[in-house]
Amino acid sequence: MASVGPSAASTQPALPSGPAVFKTIPYAFILPEILCGTWVWILVAGTSVSQPLLQGWVMYVSLTSCLISLLLLLSYLLGFHRNSENWKVLDSLYHGATAILYMSAAVLQANATINSEFSTNAPLNYQLNSAASFFAFLTTFLYILHAFSIYYQ
């Protein structure tokens, strides 16, 4: 009969703290998520918003996700998790839910890109919206990758 004592629990990998966060998968994805998400809301803010409801959702998702991910990164850097397994669950749920929200924002941004092709000041708005769509889908991919990496860890 296999024992389930303290030695079995110690085989779980420790959550990183400090600079080790940037060297450990999936936690190393947090900084690229923040940077790509920041590009999304900067690029959307740089356009003349033709569809405020659609691009308002894109701005809300990208800005909120950037701020929450930044807080999560700071909590890992400062070691607030104290190596608790609950942080893995929280991290996985957050990144999974954010991936779904980001996918909806990326699709709406792609729709705004298509609609901006024939609007006034079309070349600049189309290029900014295209770049925002690219970064929105890239950020979605990073959040999905992060969520599944934690789940399969």
UniProtKB/TrEMBL annotation:
Residues 21-153 form the MARVEL domain. GO terms for biological process: myelination. It is a multi-pass membrane protein. The chain crosses the membrane at residues 25-45, 57-80, 92-112, 132-152. GO terms for cellular component: membrane. The keyword Transmembrane applies. It is found in: Membrane. The keyword Transmembrane applies. It holds the Pfam family MARVEL. It comes from the Eukaryota. This is MALL protein. It comes from Melanocharis versteri.
